[in-house]
Amino acid sequence: MNHRIRKDICIIVLNIFSALFSIMSYANDGMEAPRIKAMIKPVKATVGSLLEYRINIAGKGLSALNVVPSENREYYPEINNTNDAIKAGNNDEHESDPFRFVPLYMIHSIKKNDRSDGSITDIAITMQISYYRPGTWALPEIEIKGSDGIRIGYKVPSVEISAVNVEGQLQEIEPPLDLKGNYWRLVFLLLGVVAVAVAAFFAWRYISTHREGRGVTIPPIEIFLKEIEQFNGSRLIDEGRIEEFVFGISMIFRKYLSLQFHFDAVEMTTYEIERKIAKIFPKYARERYGGEIMENLNLWDLSKFAEFAPSREILHANLNRTVDLGKNISGDLNNGLPRV
After folding, report:
1. What pTM, to 2 d.p., does this model score?
2. Measured between alpha carbons, how far is 67 from 115 in angstroms, rounded to an integer?
3. Which superfamily does CATH assign the domain made up of 2-162 to?
4. Over the stretch 283-314, which tens digit does the pLDDT of each residue have?
């Protein structure tokens, strides 16, 4: 136990020195140290539950940042007391322990979403993970290295895993259904199922026949305005939830551009959207709306960082201008602005 405590203390001290060295290195290079935030949902779960582990990396001047996620596989805990067990003559007991075949955790999937644009770095890593041993465990640390090759440390969250059916009690099992004497009931039940299936089939045929050729398409502007109303951005601004507001309004407006002009603006960077607009918009539409669209996208990108967060008045005005911009674009589209 003392050996493991000493090892944990050494690891913590090394991480602290690594983080301090990284910060000093970034300061000397004139670059901003990355802001890394890791979170796990939920923080308490049972054995085998699917958890979402998310790491957000943001900053400026981090183009050479190297992020190496873990592999999708099972991970077993390190055995630190193997030599002690052999010395004490308990090696057979260790070999017979059935828990040695149970992994500590398993990574099911890892998704890396790089939304970096120019000098601004914005990377999100989402990991689906499950733990199979009760206890409080630290999440796996993602390897992040700067341009100098030095590993950058961050605060790793922990998760509390509890066992299912700790006392090992047998669960109640319902006995099999006794059909003795219920043959007629079973026959009527099957006839009823067949009648319902036939009725459902003819109902489906009737509805399909009468709806044929009358497909209803919801205009993109209606979807946009409905999502803006449900989003309730004014409340988020008043409550000071700036990150939630800029992320939400950016996604809603990008989705609107995608539906209106048939290109995937949600997965594009701001620079890629600017190039797409310059390519597909007519000159009058580009001069009328191109600058305002890019002004909004750039404002939302910068607002993700606390030091660039605008005032509430600016954000309220931006919300109103965004709604008006969507309406004006939709109106011009009806007047002949082409889709892609």
Report:
1. 0.40
2. 14
3. Immunoglobulins (2.60.40.10)
4. 888 888 888 888 888 888 887 765 667 888 88
